[in-house]
Amino acid sequence: MVAKGDLLYAWTTDSGLAKKAECGGAVTALLKFALENKIVDAVVAVQKGFDLYDAIPVAITDPKDLDQTAGSLHCGTLLMSTFIKNYLDGAKKMKIGVVVKGCDLMGLLEEAKRDEINLNNLLTIGVNCGGSVNPTRARAMIQDKFGVDPDKVHKEEIDKGQFIIEYEGGHKGISIDELEDAGYGRRTNCRRCKYKVPRQADLACGNWGVLGEKAGKATFVEVCSAKGADLVSKAVASKKLETCAADPKGIEIRGKVEGAMLKLGEKWRKKDFTGLRDDLWKIIDKETSRCIKCYSCIEKCPVCSATAFKGRDESIMVRRGKLPSDPMFHLRRFAHISDSCVNCGQCEELCPMEIPLALFSHAIRVEADNAFNPKLGASSYTN
Ligand SMILES: Cc1cc2nc3c(=O)[nH]c(=O)nc-3n(C[C@H](O)[C@H](O)[C@H](O)COP(=O)(O)OP(=O)(O)OC[C@H]3O[C@@H](n4cnc5c(N)ncnc54)[C@H](O)[C@@H]3O)c2cc1C
After folding, report:
1. Whose Cα sits closest to atom 21 in ligand 1?
2. Distance between CA atoms of 218 and 26, rounded to whole angstroms?
3. Which domain range does residue 163 map to?
4. How many domains does the chain have?
5. Are 163 and 133 in contact (CB under 8 A)?
6. Centre of ligand 1 from the C-alpha of residue 127, in Å
7. pTM
C-alpha cells in the first residue's frame, strides 16, 4: 500500500505512452486511470498547439485523447487555475484532474479562498518546476544563442541546468546561467520563484533524483496526500503503473537540487528587488505610464480579477477613455493584491506594453510579508 509521505519511482506500463512521456509517464498514466475509472469527469492538461512554442490548455473527457498531452512544454507559460475558474466553472459542477506547476497550485488555492474554485472536486497532480520560458523569447534565444532556426527545432528540454534543443541536423545544449546572463532563459518571475516542488498538490512529480537505469524512464513521485496515495495504489493494483522505492542517493540528490534552486531564487530576488527599494513608487509611476488599459493584468490574475476590479466601473477605479491611465489605478491594484500575489507572472506575460508588473507586485508582496510576518519567510509558499 502506498501512503502519504512515500517517495517513489513510478512508470507507465503502456509502452506507447512511455515513448511520448517526459520521463516515466506516471503523470499521464495516473490521470488516464482516474478518467477511465470515473474518479474524475475531466482532465485539464497542456497540449502542443501549432508548434512546440505554442502550449495550449485542454479539458479532456475521453481517456483515449490523453496521450496527446504527455511530455513537458517548457514554453508553456499559461496558468491552469484561471482556465478552470473561467472556463470550467471553477470545478463546482464536475470533478477535475489537473496537472499543476507551483504557480498553478498557488493560483488554485487563492481562488478557492475567494470561493471561485471548489478544491474538493480537484485531483491535483503536481509537476516540479524549475521555470518556463516565454515562447517569443525562446524563439529569439534559439536564433541568437544557438544559431538555429527556431522553426527547425522539434524538441526542447531542460536537463542538468541546460536548455537543450533537438533540430534538423543535430542537438545542442547551453547552460541556463549563460542564457540568463545574456538576457534569455526562464521568465524573470520563474527565476525568483521558490516553490519548486508543489507539495500542496496530491502528488508532486518530477525528474530530479531519478538515478541509474531508471534515469529518464521513471518519474519521481512524492505522495503528498491520502487522495494521492489512494490513486497510486489503485493504479498499481490495476497494473497501469509500476513503482519501486526511490533510491536513497536519489532522494539526497533531489533535496540538494531543490535547495540549490531555492538559493538561486533568493539570489534573483536580491538582484531584481535591490534596484527598486529606494524608488519603487517613482519607478512604478514611470513604467505604468505606458499602460493602455487593456485590462489583461486584471483578467488573468488569479488574485485580483475577483471582486474590486471586476466591473471596470468608472466609479470603482478606472476612468474610461482616458490615457495615460490614472496612476492610482495601478497603485490600488498593487495594494489590492499585495497580500496574496503568487508571482505567477501572468500580468507581465500578457502586458502588450511590456510593463514589469509581476516584478512590482512580487516585490510588494515580499516586502509586506517581511514587514508584517517576518517568520513567515521560510514557510510561506511564495517566500
Ligand atoms: C515548465 C516545466 C518545468 C519543469 N521543471 C522541472 C524541474 O526543474 N525538475 C523536475 O524534477 N521536474 C521538472 N518538470 C517536470 C518534468 O518535466 C515532468 O513533467 C515530470 O517529471 C513528470 O514526468 P512524466 O513522464 O510522468 O509526465 P508526462 O506523463 O509526460 O506528463 C506531463 C504532464 O505535464 C503537462 N504539461 C506539459 N507542459 C506543461 C506546462 N507548461 N504547464 C503545466 N503542465 C504542463 C502535460 O500536459 C502532461 O499532463 C517540469 C515541467 C514543466 C512543464
Report:
1. 206
2. 8
3. 135-185
4. 3
5. yes
6. 5
7. 0.94
Considering Cα of 296, then 299, then 187, then 143, what sign does the dihedral take?
Answer: negative
Decide if 74 is inside a domain: yes
β-sheet with 241-245: strand ranges across: 55-60, 42-48, 96-100, 122-127, 203-206, 219-223, 7-12, 241-245
Same domain, 26 and 114: yes
> Do residues 61 and 151 both lie within one domain?
no
Give the Cβ contact number of residue 266 at 10 Å. Answer: 13
Choice from 82, 127, 158 to test ligand 1 binding pocket (greatest atom count within 8 A of CB): 127
Question: Within this chain, do residues 128 and 246 fall inside the same structural domain, yes or no?
Answer: yes
Three-state DSSP at 148 gives coil
| CB distance 146 to ligand 1 below 6 Å | no
**Could you read off the pLDDT tens digit of each residue along the chain, which spans 383 residues?**
899 999 999 999 999 999 999 999 999 999 999 999 999 999 999 999 999 999 999 999 999 999 999 999 999 999 999 999 999 999 999 999 999 999 999 999 999 999 999 999 999 999 999 999 999 999 999 999 999 999 999 999 988 889 999 999 899 999 999 999 999 999 999 999 999 999 999 999 999 999 999 999 999 999 999 999 999 999 999 999 999 999 999 999 999 999 999 999 999 999 999 888 788 889 999 999 999 888 889 888 999 864 555 555 554 566 667 787 788 888 888 988 888 999 999 999 999 999 999 999 999 999 888 888 766 554 344 54
The answer to whether the CB of 185 is under 6 A from ligand 1 is no
For ligand 1, pick from 7, 72, 82 the residue to mutate: most ligand atoms within 8 Å of CB.
Answer: 72
